[in-house]
Structures are given as structure tokens and as C-alpha cells.
Amino acid sequence: MSAIAVTARPQTPLWRRLLGFNVLTGIVLAVGGYILGHFIGDHIHGSNLNYYSAQAGQNDIAIFLGYLLGVVGFLVGLGFANYPLRRMLGHPPTLAEKESEAHGTLRYFSLSTDHKVVAMQYLVGIGFFFFVGGLNAMLIRTELLQPNTHVFGANQYLTLVGMHGTMMMGMMTSSILGPFANWLLPLMLGTRRMAFPRVEALTFWLLMAAGVVLITTVFWGGFQTGWTGYQPLGGQGTAGFDAYIGFFILVGISMCFLGFNLLATAITMRGPGMTWSRLPIFIWGVLTTAILMLLASPMLAAALMMAAMDRTVQTTFFDPGYGGSSYLWQNLFWVFGHPEVYIVALPGFGIVLELLPVFTRKPLWGYRIAVAGMLGVAFLSWFVWQHHLFMSGINADLRPFYMLSTELISIPTGFIFLAAMGTLWRGRIRFTIPMWFCIAWAFNFLIGGISGVFLSDVPSDVLTHGSFFSMAHFHYTIMGGLVFTFFAAIYYWVPRMTGFKFNELLSKIHFWSLFIAFNATFGPLFAVGWLGQPRRVVTYPAFLQGLNIWVSISAYVLGLSMLVFLVNVVWSQLFKREPAEANPWHSKSIEFQLPTPVPVHDFDRLPAFDPDPYPYGEPVQVPAYAGGGGPAIASGGGEA
Predict the structure, then answer these.
(1) Band of the pLDDT at 15, cuts 50, 70, 90?
(2) What is the mean pLDDT of the chain?
(3) Same-domain check for residues 184 and 72
(4) Are 168 and 245 in contact (CB under 8 A)?
(5) Are 351 and 286 in contact (CB under 8 A)?
(6) 412 CB-contact burial (10 Å; exposed 0-12 / middle 13-18 / buried 19+)
């Protein structure tokens, strides 16, 4: 029986709950806020049009104010203003948002302070925008089936490229930390909640608002700068670039708050026995990522605010004709942009190293080496950003340093591979679906790392910079590193999160079609780029059409593999709903020792942890925790 008594609450009629603070109310207030902001902006702007605004016939001030008040209205409609207002009126603090909607579907469409609900909101929300970004990729490859015949036209093609890259880079930064760190961190640390539950919920809803803002760019004519938003080109764009700025500002705020909350939880709320040397390796991946989020995202927000001021109040931060500098944008953006690459990669490292001991039935090899590798990657990621400026005309004396620092980062990354390979060596490997994705990660990320050497050295970068070679490298590193570990985490943890298993046949079809199609899509792009085809250009030489047709067909198969996954999710999690075993992987991690479903309060009594996070290969006692017994021991779990 639960040690915490829960008072039964009278069931509120559905119509009254729909009229309360939830996503429907948020949408209504968001529309009202946008209209109000646009109205105010029209009166502020008056006749004070800069050259580009006048030429485009747009009012950037009104658009920015519309987005700002629209997002504020959305958050108010969700109920984020309730708590501070109640506190100002003298009411005691409460987590009523979590307690009042502990069960039912409506909790997923409203403000919830239950970290498990927020994690599921992240999983579904990010999944939706992931498919939107993937659809853009299919349209891009459709355009490139012909070297000269255009399906969409040059401007529309550039908008598709920009929306695809921006959506993926903005949303997928939280694709692992949002669903899995939020769900797992309190459980693995032995605490009942995140340090700041309302901030946790805020990070999700800000990210969803950002995604909607970016989609609205299609109504303003899109933006033609790609995901990097280079200035002063961006400043000359239509109002679609305002949506780009609004999107990334919201993403940056969400990332900053998320990193802060994860750090505060891990530093201050660890359970008895959870020392720094005892942390699960996944938590180290979360911590290093959170540090980068907290430090890098304000740099992005600052650069975007400067770009917004150039477009609205006629500053000239990035206009060389008036004393500004386009190099300033490149430096500010890439000081964020290259740690961003490791914000995406580091959680994947943590997932792979967390899962390998389970499926090899042996302890993680080189735990301290792996931790050192993660910390080394996080540290060195701040010293490599100017390799993105090798072809921009930077001082030639700076190039050797950034060549060296870029290549040095392969050393701590090698520590991660060393720990992974050492864990695989002579292990009793079980080739489950999550294990296949982990092995595929090693293959893909290795290719991405090797190809990165050509981009870090100035002589070869002169040939490959801005080509499809760099795009192929980027996708092997990011998609090959992030998406494959994302699916490994889904197949490993989601049955524990929802209580229902995936269809095994569809899961196998998904993996093999994804792995084969991914390599068939991006492998040939190394050759396409080496032969001189630039990215973000709608035309290409006719002799490259054969390779481009191959890549486009492979990309369609890649898209179909994602549809197989979607069918699997709908069938197994919504219709068939076959109950999952409590611990199908025989894991000894604490999240698999808890009751199903995990209670709202997580633990009846806080667990105590023994010194070894990965006691595989040795028989240990089943933990005393079983829903109300003795203290939980995190590393129990039966046979080795």
C-alpha cells in the first residue's frame, strides 16, 4: 500500500475542465495576444520604416510584438500565471497542478508538474515536429530529382531547406533531455520530483510555442538563409525571418531553463549513497549537456535580439555599410552553434553507455574514462567554433589553432568509443532492438567523426566547405548519433513509461529499413559533395543526376521507415496495448524496480543506493523495495 494517503477528489465535469486553464484556453489567448500585439505594433511603427521593411511592405515591430504577446497569452491560458498571483495574494505554495490531475488524458493537455507527465508531453510534441521536419526533407529531395526542372522554385526550395534545418536543430536539442532526462533523472537520483517542477513544464510549452511560430514563416514568405540565419542576408529578408528569430529565441530560453533545472536537480537532490562517482553514466551525459545548454543558449538569444533590433529599431550590428560586422554574427552564432552539436550528441553517448551493460551483462568498462570523455567534449566544444569561418576570410594566423582544437576533440570522443568497445568485448551480448540501435550508433558516428577530419583541416575544407560533403558529415554525426540513440531510448524505456510493449516485427522492420536507408541516403552524398555540388543551391550539373536520384529514392525509403515506426506506435500504444513486462531487459537500474505504473509521488520511501551502478556479472539480492517495504536498493535485480 502507498505510504502517502491521497484524498479522493470529486470528479469535475469535462465541460468545466475544458473551460479551465488548458491548451484550448491557451490557443484562444494566444490568438488574442497576437492580434493585440500586432495592433500595438502598427501604432508604434507609424511611418518609421527602414529600407528593407519599406521594400517588403512589412511591419517587423508589429510581428515581433504579436509573437511576444501571443506566447504570453498562451502561457497565461495554460495557467502559468496562477501560482505567482496566488502567492502575491497570500495563498500557501502548492503543487495542485500535479495532484488534481494525477490521472486522465486531460493532464497531457494542460500545465502539469509531474515530471513523468512532462516527459510524455515532450515525447509526443517533439515527435510531431520531428515528422514535420522530415516531411520537409522529403520535399527537398523531390526538388533535387532533376538538375534544372523545379517543383517549388528557388525561393520555396530555400525556405524548405531553412525550415528543415531550423526545425530539426531547434527541436531535437531537447529530444532526449525533454522526454528521457525529465522522466528518469528524479528516479535515478532517488528523489520525488525535479528541483523546479513549474520551470520543467514551462520549458516544454515554450518549445511547443516555438514550433508553431516557426511554421507560421510559410505565411510570411519563408526565409532564405538556411538554419544559420547569416547576417546581413537575414536582415534583408521578408517577415518570415522574424518567425526564425522568434523561434530560436524561444528555443534558447527553453534550453537555458531546462539545463538550469537539470543541473539544480542533480546537484542538490541526490538520494542517500548517490555520490558523484556513483551516478549512472546517463546522468553524466545529462549533466554535461545541461552545462552546455545553460552557457550556450544565452549567446544565441543575444545574437537574435541584436538581429531583431537591426530589423525594428534600425541598429546596425551586422551591417558593414554602417559600421557593423557580419563576422560578429558568425562568431556569436557559432559560439552557440558548435556546443549545440554536442548538446545533441552527449545525451546519445549517455544512452549508449547506459544500455550496453544491460545487454552485455557486464559492468560498464572504463566508467571514469567515459566520464572524463564527456567532460572533455563539453570543455573543448568551446574552442572549435571558428572552423566554421575557415572560408569566411578570418585571420590566417588563427587557422592552425582551430585546426588543432577541432582535431583534439576527437580524443575525449575516443574515450567514449573506448568505453563502449570495452563493454562489448567478451560480453554476453543480447541482440535486442535497443541494442541494434546502439551498435548502429557506433557505426554511424564513427563515419561522421572520420569525415569530420576533412572539414577540420583547412586545405581539404577549401574543397568540401559548403558542399554536400559537409551536409553528409553533419547528418552522420547528428542524425546518425542522435536519432539512432533516440530510438534506442524509445524502445528501451517507453514500454516502462507507458506500460505497453512495441510490436516486435514492426520494430525490426523499422530498424533495418532505417539503418539501410540512412546509409544509402547520406553515404553517396560524400561523393556528391566531393564532386562539387553545393548545398542550399537548387540547381546542379547534369552528370550528378544519377547520384541524386539514388539519394532521393533512398530518402523516400527512409521516410517510409519512419511511417513504420508511427504505425508501430499507434498500433501498440493506442490499439493493441499488450502489457509490457515490469523488467523485460533484466536491468538493475532503479526505474525498472518500481511498481507499474510508477506512482505520482515516485517513491513510498526514498531509496538508498549501493556503491556500484552496474553490478552485472555478479549475483545480487533482489532489492527490498516492492511498493512499500524496506528501502530501495538501486542496483538490485536478480540474476546477473
Answers:
(1) low
(2) 87
(3) no
(4) no
(5) no
(6) buried
